């Protein structure tokens, strides 16, 4: 009797051993996303299209910036890029093959309006986007359009660019034309992609086009114009198009997650909270509440006063603009890539990066990508989603970008990208299923390797490899493409109880063993 029990016990243990191996890697959630959850890919016009002067396209700030030597790491340009202008059908083919529900792409303003204004409308430019939109729809892929992904027409920079509020009516005109010409088929509109990067990298650090350095005031003015332009484009859609077109308009705001360096140190905890408010809150707070976050107001006002300025470097919305900007969203677009650690550190000069009195660092154990700013810290994603839920009343979120970079050497076996996508989507899944964050879609950056701004082609973000030395710009799926294809098809991570036949067999053997064991013990 004892012997047989021991024998069966051993069998059971064996069973458990096998069980431990057969389930997913440690800490993986086996669950599906909600039924209506949607999956897609993102790109941006300047990064993929090429055809920089094709068919009457006008010059934009990235054409000017890349044609000026010394601005781009590998001295490359987006003149040809992935040549999607001539080959968009291949892009749609890839999207279809991978099972994307939608495709997020951006409009090149100067392809449609060569001078940036309504003075000249390029029908060739409009035809390009019409062809792309029609082909997407024919393949059951929904278009999601970003109106502005950083490629401002050069003539609008020549009058001062985004720090000049004269751009507001120009953006409004461009947006109206886009709604008029594409809005019968396009129902998802993003006004701006990552205004933070436009303002800080373009007008603060000078690392992006138009290459202007002036951190103290220019980025704040830039952000102010962009928020007003966004509000105009949002309100105008409701006044003039919504009834006929029934689409949705939002803005995409980027943010990392900011965690305290020492969670037991209250000043680090405060610094981290301030960092999220200075980063995400700079743009989202006005969109939800009509004004900048209180922390920004207090810190920048105080520093401006100490500098002897007669007004704050952080502008204010008057009553009219407050009501325009407040509530100008149907969904919140979120681009998230990474996490940083924060501590209290007094700023050294005036400007956004110093105004917040935060020192930033990274944990050396976090896996490194090819981009110096990007480490894999999956838990940060879930924390940011929960922070958004808490601070803005659980808004409808579309994740409009998330992705990983590697170098040329990695090639098609992009295991770290697969790991990144696995861990980040797991973190998002947990935020949705356990914390009820209202996230309804996930967009991977990017469909294919492309022109990575100041880094040129030296950092690859694609799930398709693009050969940039071949004039035909062939694309080859990487391992990560196969991974995402499966994830999209499964709509998550099906568990043993969902559809694994091998595992259900295993459970039958286990329960049979239990049955015999109990029978023996009862005699
Ligand atoms: C985003 N950072 O940019 C953009 O929307 C894409 O066009 C870009 O290719 C992608 O992310 C990858 O970089 C970012 O320094 C650029 O933290 C820089 C940062 C974040 C996002």
From TrEMBL:
InterPro entries: GH (IPR017853), GH_1_N_CS (IPR033132), Glyco_hydro_1 (IPR001360). One of its GO terms (molecular function) is beta-glucosidase activity. It comes from the Eukaryota. Keywords: Glycoprotein, Glycosidase, Hydrolase, Signal. Gene3D superfamilies: Glycosidases. The keyword Glycoprotein applies. The keyword Signal applies. Residues 1-22 form the signal peptide. One of its GO terms (biological process) is carbohydrate metabolic process. Belongs to the glycosyl hydrolase 1 family. Homodimer. This is Lactase-phlorizin hydrolase.
């Amino acid at each position: 009797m004892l012997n047989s029990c021991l024998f069966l016990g051993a069998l059971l243990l064996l069973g458990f051993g096998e069980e431990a191996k057969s389930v997913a890697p440690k800490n993986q959630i086996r669950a599906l996303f909600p039924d209506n959850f949607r999956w897609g890919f993102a790109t941006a016009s300047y990064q993929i299209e090429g055809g920089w002067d094709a068919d009457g396209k006008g010059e934009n700030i990235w054409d000017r910036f890349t044609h000026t030597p010394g601005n781009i790491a590998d001295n490359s340009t987006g003149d040809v890029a992935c040549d999607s202008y001539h080959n968009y059908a291949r892009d749609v083919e890839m999207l279809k093959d991978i099972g994307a529900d939608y495709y997020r792409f951006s409009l090149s303003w100067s392809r449609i309006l060569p001078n940036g204004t309504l003075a000249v409308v390029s029908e060739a430019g409009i035809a390009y986007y019409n062809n792309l939109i029609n082909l997407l729809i024919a393949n059951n892929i929904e278009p999601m359009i970003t109106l502005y992904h950083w490629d401002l027409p050069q003539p609008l920079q020549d009058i001062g660019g985004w720090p000049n509020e004269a751009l507001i009516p120009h953006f409004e005109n461009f947006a109206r034309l886009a709604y008029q010409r594409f809005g019968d088929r396009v129902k998802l509109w993003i006004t701006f992609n990552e205004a933070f990067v436009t303002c800080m990298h373009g007008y603060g650090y000078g690392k992006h086009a138009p290459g202007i350095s002036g951190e103290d005031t220019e980025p704040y003015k830039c952000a102010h114009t962009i928020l007003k332009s966004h509000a105009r484009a949002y309100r105008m859609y409701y006044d003039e198009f919504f009834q006929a077109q029934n689409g949705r308009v939002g803005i995409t705001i980027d943010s990392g997650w900011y965690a305290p360096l020492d969670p037991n140190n209250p000043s680090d905890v405060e610094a981290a909270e301030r960092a999220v408010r200075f980063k995400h809150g700079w743009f989202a707070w006005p969109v939800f509440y009509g004004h900048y976050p209180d922390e920004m107001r207090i810190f920048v006002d105080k520093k401006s006063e100490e500098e002897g300025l007669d007004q704050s470097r952080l502008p204010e919305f008057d009553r009219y603009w407050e009501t325009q900007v407040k509530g100008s969203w149907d969904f919140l677009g979120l681009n998230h890539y990474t996490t940083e650690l924060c501590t209290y550190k007094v700023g050294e000069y005036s400007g956004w990066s110093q105004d917040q009195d935060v020192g930033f660092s990274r944990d050396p154990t976090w896996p490194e990508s090819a981009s110096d700013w990007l480490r894999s810290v999956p838990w940060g994603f879930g924390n940011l989603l929960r922070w958004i839920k808490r601070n803005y009343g659980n808004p409808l979120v579309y994740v409009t970008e998330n992705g990983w970079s590697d170098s040329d050497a990695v090639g098609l076996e992009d295991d770290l990208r697969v790991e990144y996508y696995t861990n980040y989507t797991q973190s998002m899944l947990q935020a949705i299923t356990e914390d009820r964050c209202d996230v309804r879609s996930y967009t991977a950056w990017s469909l294919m390797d492309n022109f990575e701004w100041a880094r040129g082609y030296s950092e690859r973000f694609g799930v398709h490899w693009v050969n940039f030395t071949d004039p035909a710009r062939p694309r080859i799926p990487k391992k990560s493409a196969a991974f995402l294809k499966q994830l999209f098809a499964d709509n998550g991570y099906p568990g043993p109880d969902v559809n694994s036949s091998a595992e259900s067999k295993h459970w039958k053997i286990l329960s049979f063993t239990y049955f015999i064991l109990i029978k023996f013990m009862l005699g």
